[in-house]
Amino acid sequence: MKLYYNPLSTYSQKAMIAFNEKGIAYEPALVDLGSPEGRAAYQAINPIGKVPFLAASDDWVVPESTIIIEYLEDRFPETPRLIPVEKEAARQVRFMDRTADLYFNEPVLELLFQHIGFRPKNAEAAERARRYVDVTYAYWDKRLASQPWLCGEKFTMADCAAIPPLFYAQIAAPFAQHPNVAAYFARAQQRPSYAKVKAECEPAWQAMAAKAKVA
Ligand SMILES: N[C@@H](CCC(=O)N[C@@H](CS)C(=O)NCC(=O)O)C(=O)O
Beta 53-57 vs 27-30: how paired, if at all? Predict the structure, then answer.
């Protein structure tokens, strides 16, 4: 299986954490999102141009980080589950996954891109993003007061989604005032699935941050 990814991409990291949690091997295919030529070459493979994108076989492809994880759950049922079998618990994980992507990852990226000058300053967009991030922090902080992971005692797809944007949130929307979120992110550093992804992906961020003078 070939996973098209970019190390700076939180959604790519989300899928990579899931592969690691499950102990499933994949062939990484680095996508150059930083040049028009790289983007054009990738659009010949995935016209929408987003990563991650899984080429599961020559004639079966899976776009979207959540759908990739759903695919791994179904295709490798003997590996550790990231979405519980029980329907109510599964719905909770899917809800938290959506919350992490839509109301945390996206606004964090908005704040980050404005912060490092990749997007023009836009006070209205920043304020809207900040509001979503603050609501999410308050919600997560409450949940994480009594459990190690977002959906309870077990690491799930929701954690795969939440942890990568927290890395960038350290810069764009620091969370020290939310001690349970801070402890959660510290716990994530000890999780081998994320530690591996971080080791693989952080150098690309450090290089970019040095160029953007935000390191
Ligand atoms: N909903 C998608 C989002 C994927 C996404 O937005 N990926 C970003 C990188 S984090 C991307 O490919 N950006 C390139 C572009 O928009 O051209 C998923 O969950 O996989």
Answer: unpaired
Q: Which atom of ligand 1 is nearest to the CA of 51?
A: 12
**Any ligand 1 atom below 6 A from CB of 14:** no
CA atoms of 61 and 23, how far apart (whole Å): 20
CB 81 within 8 A of CB 88: no
Please provide the size of the chain in residues. 215
Ligand 1 pocket mutation pick from 48, 50, 98 by most atoms within 8 angstroms of CB = 50
This prediction's pTM: 0.97
> 152: which DSSP letter?
B
For the chain, domains (ranges, CATH) are: 2-75 (3.40.30.10), 87-212 (1.20.1050.10)
Task: Note down pLDDT in tens along the chain; length 215 residues.
Answer: 999 999 999 999 999 999 999 999 999 999 999 899 999 999 999 999 999 999 988 788 999 999 999 999 999 999 999 999 999 999 999 999 999 999 999 999 999 999 999 899 999 999 999 999 999 999 999 999 999 999 999 999 999 999 999 999 999 999 999 999 999 999 999 999 999 999 999 999 999 888 876 75
Residue 15 Cα: closest atom of ligand 1: 20
